[in-house]
Amino acid sequence: MPLEFVTVPCLKDNYAYLIHDAESGQTALIDAPEAAPILAELQARGWKLGMILLTHHHSDHIQGVPEIAAATGAVVLGARADATRLPRLDRALAEGDQITVGGETGHVLDVSGHTMGHIAFIFPHSNLAFTADSLMAGGCGRLFEGTPGTMWASLSKLAALPGETLICSGHEYTTSNLRFAATIEPENPALLARIASIAAARSEGQATVPSLLSEELATNPFLRAGLPQVKAAVGLSGASDAEVFAEIRARKDKF
After folding, report:
1. Distance between CA 2 and CA 12 in Å, rounded?
2. Cα separations (Å) of 242 from 118, 152, 214, 229?
């Protein structure tokens, strides 16, 4: 059976995720922005946490680790390339490594760009991709460390996943991301429909993540940088996909 998963709002606009295998009872956490809401969710569901999977070193994704690990005894896993900036790791990971939660095996992708050493966790049977601040709902993370070429390569890996994959990203940034997307493709009907849907969801206090990869491919300008109509929209019809991505990212940084 697919893994159960729960989106846990944290801090001002962060999300953590719990995944749970009902048959074995095994539970994992992806990122730890703060301890209290995560521990409360575990207690409410009667789940015992066995591992904490970290995507990258930014404090709003790891600062809850010490308290959660102390309270649960969970082991901590994160990128070997980022180990010096993460809490102490019980297991260091690299692209291609596998993680088992109950009956499902997930794998690690290097999705550097927002930071170097940023990883994503993919659970293909359950159609779940935990992308944190790499691919985000309607956008992508700001390039604090990587180059546009690095980030485009990372996003291309994620874009190659099945369209039914749920993109479980790290922040509630969807409204502003789509407002920017409309400056690139103001007549994209899928984008206009998504903007209306997101506005309705937020008016009722609903989270806008996770999102389907198929929806991201139809509306997220950072995944659409290789399309002729998007290249034309930014005045770079003859440019490479990575160059167009760089232009879109530069515009978003100033938006």
Report:
1. 30
2. 19, 6, 21, 15
Q: pLDDT tens across 69-80, in order? A: 999 999 999 999
Place 216 in a pLDDT band, splitting at 50, 70 and 90: very high
- The structure tokens listed for 244 are 């167009």
**pLDDT the model gives residue 114:** 98
In eight-state DSSP terms, residue 65 is H
pLDDT digits (tens, 9 = 90+) for 133-144: 999 999 999 999
Question: DSSP letter string over 93-125?
Answer: E-TT-EEEETTEEEEEEE-TTSSTT-EEEEETT
What is the dotted CATH code of the domain comprising 4-254?
3.60.15.10
Give the length of the chain: 255
Whole-angstrom CA distances from 227 to 135, 221, 244 are: 18, 10, 10
Q: What distance in Å separates the CA atoms of residue 39 and residue 34, rounded to the nearest whole number?
A: 9
Position 221 scores a pLDDT of 98
Domain range annotation of the chain:
4-254
Residues 28 and 38: their CA atoms lie apart, in Å, by 11
Q: What count of other Cβ atoms lies within 10 Å of the Cβ of residue 124? A: 14
